Structure to design on (996 residues):
């Protein structure tokens, strides 16, 4: 079970994502932004951080990195891909996922232990959860507001492609102004998932708010082992 | 380059033949005798470039000329036993200590006060960036940052300008570079209105064999400048030179405050770590204050030869920069390495892999001078030690301020104290929402505390705790503290109380205190009263460290934090670092479950002078600070460390500002578990031996105390650890209220609404 973790210049949570893969029983394979080579991995994680400093628009430059030339067609062909935070931004910039992530509505970076509801437990990365389950993982970003036009939002909802929603606070607000409280979405096939919160920071006892993040990594490991067994 | 500029180039040769040229030494901040001294050292007048170098390197900030005469107190108070823990001591970019299992940890705190007042975002951001480069240049991977911050009155309009900018700058840089921000302080006091204190601490870790030092040795070794290009930012004080030498139409009005690029520094970190791993770095130095002037002169001064640099080769962001500006520029995200010729190719391959620009700009020579050329002409030819290490030393006059007797005599005994339970309850709610004690998450939630995945504890717990060794869980805890009011009342005792509190905070989470860094923020050294405060504070820290057996590994002095004649409270911020074999065993500060015994450890006295209660309720500062009892701190620390290691406590919280009342309230609010306090009677006594009333027991700020919660099943084991540490079982956890039986009860919800509303009310949700 080989899961690639891409490092762009400015990636920050790449080591953390690799650790989470190992903690959950997988093998983490480093992938370099400058190489258009996926090294035969079974799945890919685009980690959090500030790729290329994100001085332009988050993820807008990373989209053009050589590794993405290999990743985009592979993802369209069914390779499981998880984009976390900056990785989610790269996925929307690459048009592997719809919508965009904009500056938080309160204009500040925000680091909190965030409650989420799992809306779709049948993607490659969420099959170890149950639909309706509430989990707590770390959320930390400055540009985490998910936006899309009404039609796209309706399609996402209608096709069950909203994977995670923020649990709103008492005033009905979510932590960054995301439309319809959307925290994470998937593509039509359910192999590409992007979310702003950070499951890789909730996999080890004593280091993070919970162990709820493990489900992402155990889901993909189990699914890959199963598909290998049936192949 | 135009003809006029070529003609105006002030070479060494030209300087030797034109001794009578008037030079702007006064405008550059040099004194007449300092300028004469430079002429003596060189045997001629300095060139413009040399004058610029000396002026900035002999500034207070770079040369410690007013403070270093007092640094002998560090050495005199460092025993052989303390020295054994030090792998690298004071004088290098940062001190390094051995934390066991082959791991070394380096940490240091620095100030970036003045730039942060002028331009809060960039001032704070580059403060973080600068301290991170100090840590990198020791060979370490930076693993965490902390930011002790002090502002003026929360409700003053200028605080609304300074604070949001500083916080966004700290977060913007630290978040983007990917270092967890695990703690620090936020203090408000009118004395900081025109002089906010923005201190930045960084911790780094490495294997002991990977320690690197800043020195240039080995004739023929290459001097490489790598990282960002050099621009006109941060030139500041030497702008006077620009006006002297620039032809009309040249660049003007450059910002005095540097601009940070955290992405460039993140790449630089990873690049440096690859360079260290490849073993291709002989000596390394970061570029911070005084830029190339500092890096070249310090590297050469620490080495065994000379250095030759071709300044033309420095990659520039602005081609019109003059040589003296290039030497002064404080452009960020730059490093300088000394590399053996045989390693040059591999070095450049690694920097190329990270798209980091690297340029050989010179080499180590067998002479004893630092020689810098510009278009083939020698513009600097100096003994590097005279620039870097042999600047002026002042023995400034010092005198105990005359106001101190009156201040010390005006204690809190005359202030009205609340009598009834209702009054105590009301004052608790006032305090819990007061600027210094309120919830700081409006600030700290703007910092990433989780990145790197090793954070075991962060704000608002007593110390930040990070794992260093992922196999064993070995790691470090760090806390920074200082109560400037105590230091104002008595700088010696105040500095020791800051040391004691940081020591206690580290022990409270379960780490054994190991080493100290300090950031000494004071007013003008030209004021004998300030100089006396400074000397007293250093003496307090040095003697306190000696008693506790933990060495000072390095730090920083920041003078001139004053507006007109009014100085800030003396603010010696102390950072203590402790070590834990397994950081997952750390104690958090909040009550976790019902029915645990709650103990108060330590001795409570009637000590309200300088307290948060006097400050908030009566706007009063006077009297004498709480008693310093370092032996009691040590005994308490041993119990707290042992209790965490054996896992008999489920919460431990230091008592400091606001005393027992605030510690109880914070422990309740952390996880929403209440407490019933029924054992307050008999807690402590006053100077005459009379038992303290409930108010005094709750709000006194006696030192060497902590609150712990112990599950019933562990109570006997815990009590057996206590030895002669004074203790009282004061209550039991449970419920949703903080109840002091016979006096008052307040729900956690009400505490939280008072606690959490303060900062959002001022700065917006």
């Amino acid at each position: 079970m080989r899961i690639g973790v891409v490092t762009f210049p400015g990636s920050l949570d790449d080591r953390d994502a690799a650790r989470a893969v190992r903690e959950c029983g997988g093998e983490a394979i480093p992938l370099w932004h400058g190489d258009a080579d996926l090294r035969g991995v079974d799945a890919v994680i685009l980690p959090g951080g500030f790729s290329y400093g994100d001085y332009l628009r988050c993820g807008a430059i990373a989209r053009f990195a050589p590794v993405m030339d290999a990743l985009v067609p592979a993802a369209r062909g069914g390779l499981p891909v998880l984009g976390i935070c900056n990785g989610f931004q790269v996925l929307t910039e690459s048009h592997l996922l719809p919508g965009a992530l904009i500056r938080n509505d309160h204009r500040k970076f925000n680091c909190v232990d965030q409650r989420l509801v799992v809306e779709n437990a049948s993607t490659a990365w969420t099959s170890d959860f149950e639909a309706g389950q509430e989990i707590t993982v770390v959320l930390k970003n400055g540009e985490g507001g998910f936006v899309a036009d009404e039609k796209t939002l309706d399609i996402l909802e209608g096709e069950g492609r909203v994977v995670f929603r923020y649990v709103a606070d008492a005033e009905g607000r979510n932590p960054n102004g995301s439309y319809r409280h959307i925290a994470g979405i998937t593509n039509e096939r359910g192999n590409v998932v992007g979310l702003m919160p950070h499951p890789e920071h909730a996999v080890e006892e004593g280091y993070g708010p919970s162990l709820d993040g493990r489900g992402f990594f155990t889901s993909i490991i189990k699914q890959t082992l199963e598909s290998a067994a049936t192949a | 380059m135009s003809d006029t500029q070529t003609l105006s180039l002030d070479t060494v040769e030209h300087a030797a033949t034109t001794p009578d040229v008037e030079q702007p030494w006064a405008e550059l901040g040099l004194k007449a005798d300092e300028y004469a001294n430079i002429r003596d050292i060189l045997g001629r007048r300095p060139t413009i470039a040399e004058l610029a170098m000396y002026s900035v390197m002999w500034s207070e900030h770079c040369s410690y000329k007013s403070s270093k005469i007092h640094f002998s107190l560090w050495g005199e108070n460092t025993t052989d036993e303390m020295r054994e823990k030090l792998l690298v001591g004071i004088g290098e970019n940062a001190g390094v200590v051995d934390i066991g299992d082959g791991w070394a940890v380096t940490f240091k705190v620095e100030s970036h006060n003045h730039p942060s007042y002028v331009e809060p975002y960039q001032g704070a951001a580059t403060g973080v960036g600068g301290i991170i480069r100090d840590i990198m240049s020791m060979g370490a991977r930076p693993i965490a940052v902390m930011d002790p911050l002090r502002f003026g009155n929360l409700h003053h309009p200028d605080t609304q300008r300074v604070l949001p900018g500083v916080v966004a700058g700290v977060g913007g840089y630290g978040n983007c570079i990917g270092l967890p921000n695990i703690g620090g302080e936020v203090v408000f006091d009118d004395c900081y209105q025109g002089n906010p204190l923005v201190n930045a601490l960084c911790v780094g870790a490495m294997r002991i064999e990977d320690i690197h030092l800043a020195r240039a040795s080995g004739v023929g070794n290459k001097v490489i400048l790598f990282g960002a290009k050099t621009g006109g930012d941060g030139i500041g004080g030497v702008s006077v030179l620009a006006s002297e030498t620039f032809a009309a139409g040249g660049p003007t009005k450059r910002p005095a405050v540097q601009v940070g690029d955290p992405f460039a520094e993140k790449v630089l970190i990873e690049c440096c770590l690859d360079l260290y791993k490849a073993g291709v770095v002989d000596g390394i130095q970061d570029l911070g204050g005084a830029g190339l002037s500092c890096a070249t002169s310090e590297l050469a001064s620490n080495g065994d030869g000379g250095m030759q640099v071709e300044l033309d080769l420095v990659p520039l962001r602005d081609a019109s920069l003059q040589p003296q500006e290039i030497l002064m520029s404080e452009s960020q995200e730059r490093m300088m390495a000394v590399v053996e010729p045989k390693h040059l190719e591999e070095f450049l391959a690694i920097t190329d892999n990270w798209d980091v620009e690297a340029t050989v700009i010179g080499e180590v020579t067998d002479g004893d001078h630092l020689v810098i050329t510009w278009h083939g002409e020698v513009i600097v030819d100096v003994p590097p030690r005279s620039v870097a290490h042999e600047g002026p030393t002042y023995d400034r006059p010092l005198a105990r301020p005359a106001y101190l007797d009156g201040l010390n005599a005006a204690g809190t005994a005359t202030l009205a104290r609340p009598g009834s339970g209702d009054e105590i309850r009301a004052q608790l709610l006032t305090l819990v929402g007061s600027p210094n004690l309120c919830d700081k998450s409006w600030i700290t939630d703007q910092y990433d505390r989780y990145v790197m995945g090793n954070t075991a504890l962060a704000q608002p717990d007593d110390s930040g705790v990070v794992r260093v060794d992922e196999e064993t869980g070995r790691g470090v805890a760090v806390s920074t503290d200082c109560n400037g009011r105590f230091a104002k009342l008595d700088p010696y005792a105040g500095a020791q109380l800051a040391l004691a509190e940081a020591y206690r905070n580290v022990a409270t989470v379960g780490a054994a205190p190991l080493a100290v860094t300090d950031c000494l923020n004071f007013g003008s050294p030209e004021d004998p009263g300030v100089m006396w405060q400074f000397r007293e504070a250093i003496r307090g820290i040095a003697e306190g460290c000696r008693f506790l057996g933990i060495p000072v590994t390095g730090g920083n002095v920041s003078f001139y934090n004053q507006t007109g004649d009014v100085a800030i409270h003396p603010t010696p911020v102390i950072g203590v670092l402790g070590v834990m074999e397994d950081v997952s065993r750390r104690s958090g500060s909040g009550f976790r479950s019902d029915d645990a015994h709650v103990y108060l450890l330590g001795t409570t006295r009637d000590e309200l002078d300088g307290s948060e209660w006097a400050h908030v309720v009566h706007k009063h500062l006077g009297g004498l600070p709480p008693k310093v009892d370092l032996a009691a701190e040590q005994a308490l620390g041993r119990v707290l460390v042992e209790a965490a290691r054996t896992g008999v406590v489920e919460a431990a919280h230091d008592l400091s500002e606001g005393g027992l009342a605030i510690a109880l309230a914070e422990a309740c609010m952390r996880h929403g578990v209440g407490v019933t306090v029924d054992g307050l009677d008999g807690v402590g006594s006053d100077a005459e031996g009379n038992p303290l009333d409930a108010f005094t027991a709750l709000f006194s700020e006696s030192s060497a105390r902590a609150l712990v919660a112990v599950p019933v099943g562990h109570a006997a084991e815990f009590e057996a650890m206590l030895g002669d540490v004074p203790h009282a079982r004061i209550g039991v956890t449970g419920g949703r209220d903080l109840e002091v039986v016979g006096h008052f009860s307040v729900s956690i919800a009400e505490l939280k609404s008072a606690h959490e509303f303060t900062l959002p009310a001022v700065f917006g949700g």
Q: What stands out?
A: The radius of gyration of chain A is 16 Å.
